[in-house]
Amino acid sequence: MNGQLLKPINLLLACLLALPLLASASTLERVRSSNSLTLGYLPDIAPFSSQQGGQPSGYAIDLCEQVAAHIKSELDLADLQVRYQAVEEAESIAAVSAGSIDILCSPTLETLTERKAVSFSLPIYTAGLAALVREDVSPALVNVLNGKVAHSGPTWRATINRGLANHTYAVTEGGATEAWVRQQQNQLGVVATLVTVANPEQGVQLVADGKADAFFSERILLQNYLAKNKEASEMRVLERIYEFAPVAMALARDDEDLRLLVDTALSESYRSGELENIYRHHLGEPGEMVKVLFKVYALPR
Question: What span is annotated as the signal peptide, if there is one (predicted)?
Answer without folding.
Answer: 1-25
